[in-house]
Amino acid sequence: MNILVCDDDKEILEAISIYLQNEGYHVFKASNGKEALEIVDEKEVHLIIMDIMMPEMDGLRATLKIREEKNIPIIMLSAKAEDTDKILGLNIGADDYVTKPFNPLELIARVKSQLRRYTTLGSLETKENVFKTGGLVVDDESKIVTVDGEEVKLTPVQYKILKLLTQNAGRVFSIEEIYERVWQEAPFNPENTVAVHIRKIREKIEINPKEPKYLKVVWGIGYKVEKL
Prior knowledge:
Elements: E1 2-6, H1 10-22, E2 26-30, H2 33-42, E3 47-51, H3 59-67, E4 74-78, H4 83-91, E5 96-99, H5 104-120, E6 130-133, E7 136-139, E8 144-147, E9 150-152, H6 156-167, E10 173-174, H7 175-183, H8 190-205, E11 215-218, E12 222-225
Parallel strand pairs: 1-2, 1-3, 3-4, 4-5
Antiparallel strand pairs: 6-7, 7-8, 8-9, 10-12, 11-12
Helix pairs in contact: 2-3, 6-7, 6-8, 7-8
């Protein structure tokens, strides 16, 4: 997942970026609303953390411009704690509001909550090349896999297998067909090869790999990703 952090305070900008990167997110940085708009236009952004008080273009005006075209979740930051500022930010299109100084763990929790809501409501699903079932999302444009809003790191082969099955959720693929499609060659000892990769994928995307929610075996036939 790609997150844009926009704040004119360099120390806060760097601190937030470090917290997010430690959680596995990719971070874009901006120091004012104008820079934020340029990044949103040029990059794939899944969530924005936007300060209100900034030079050149403040966070409120930037949020208004972003809302003209995009439904990206926006969490607003401000040193002001007055209810009027909070209400104004929410009324112009912000999804959440955090007052400085903030607890980093709380901010991360709010980020995860907004990303879960964003994917669950299907905002990503309308994009081309995004395949979704339940809380599992395979974004083939950015080559990012998330489960309940959290990014999962897969090897290239693991990604290809999961993409194939998620893109065709509900359909059962034989071991031979999975091998031919992913490795693009005639099957050679496909049972063990495919089974090892399936097990590794389950360990990464399932809460309980022994009782998988998504990636299931159909005995005597092959594998499928459940259509949820």
